[in-house]
Amino acid sequence: MGLLARWLSDALRLGLALALAIAAMQIPAIAHQYAAALIQITEDARRDIEQRKDAARHFYPGAGDTDE
User: Model-level pTM?
Assistant: First the structure.
């Protein structure tokens, strides 16, 4: 019984170590995807702001071109 328990303990420890190693190798890919998503969100937000400014300029033609 002791041999089986020791074998299961070692197998569990090895399995967890391998799972952690695989997860650690995925971190750079996840970080890159996150950064790319943030860049896309900021570009979309800037585009939306410019579209809203253009719409406001057409709606209020005498307001001027200040960004306040």
Answer: 0.55
